[in-house]
Amino acid sequence: MDTQAQIKEIVTSHPVVLFMKGTPQFPQCGFSGNAINILRACGAENLHTVNVFDDEGIRQGIKQYANWPTIPQLYIHGEFIGGSDIMTEMFQSGELKQLIQG
């Protein structure tokens, strides 16, 4: 399976997916840590995370998949939502919690 197909399988197999640097227990960049904190505050229970440091192909491929140059990247129900900055704005407006719980 090529990297793009692998990424598509991941984002469509789980309701909430975060591609991040590190793990939820040990985020390895501030933006990934911020993203995890936001998702926890939104009550994301079925969160699936992918540590991009575990697979260089995914680390590069995810940037092409959504045509988004940075990590973390959030997907809800297979749809690309955005990175840490967009997550922060959506969290502050209440929109992200609605998406996750809806």
Task: Give your account of this protein's structure.
- With 102 residues, the chain is α+β, with helices and mostly antiparallel strands.
- It has one domain: Glutaredoxin (3-Layer(aba) Sandwich), CATH 3.40.30.10.
- It has five helices and four strands; from the N terminus they run H-E-H-E-H-E-E-H-H.
- It has helices at 3-13, 30-41, 56-65, 84-93, 95-101, and strands spanning 16-20, 47-51, 73-76, 79-82.
- Strands 2-1-3-4 form a four-stranded mixed sheet, with helices on both faces.
- Helix 1 packs across helix 3 (56-65) and helix 2 runs parallel beside helix 4.
- The chain starts with a helix and ends with a helix.
- The relative contact order is 0.21.
- The mean pLDDT is 96.
Q: How is this fold's topology laid out?
A:
Blueprint: H1 3-13, E1 16-20, H2 30-41, E2 47-51, H3 56-65, E3 73-76, E4 79-82, H4 84-93, H5 95-101
Parallel strand pairs: 1-2
Antiparallel strand pairs: 1-3, 3-4
Describe the structure concisely.
The chain is an alpha+beta fold and 102 residues long.
Give the oligomeric state of the chains in this entry, treating copies of one chain as homo and distinct chains as hetero: single chain
The helix tally amounts to: 5
Helical residues, percent: 40-55%
Please give the CATH architecture.
Answer: 3-Layer(aba) Sandwich
Mean pLDDT, to the nearest integer, reads: 96
Largest sheet, if any? 4 strands, mixed
CATH superfamily: Glutaredoxin
CATH topology: Glutaredoxin
Q: Largest sheet, order of strands side by side?
A: 2-1-3-4
Instruction: Please identify the top-level CATH class.
Output: Alpha Beta
The shape, in one word, is: globular
**Element-level helix/strand string:** HEHEHEEHH
Amino- and carboxy-terminal Cα gap: 32 Å
**Relative strand content:** 15-25%
Query: Which structural category fits the helices and strands?
Result: alpha+beta
Number of DSSP strands? Answer: 4
Rg from alpha-carbon coordinates: 12 Å
List segments where confidence is low: pLDDT < 50 over at least 5 consecutive residues. none
Counted up, domains total: 1
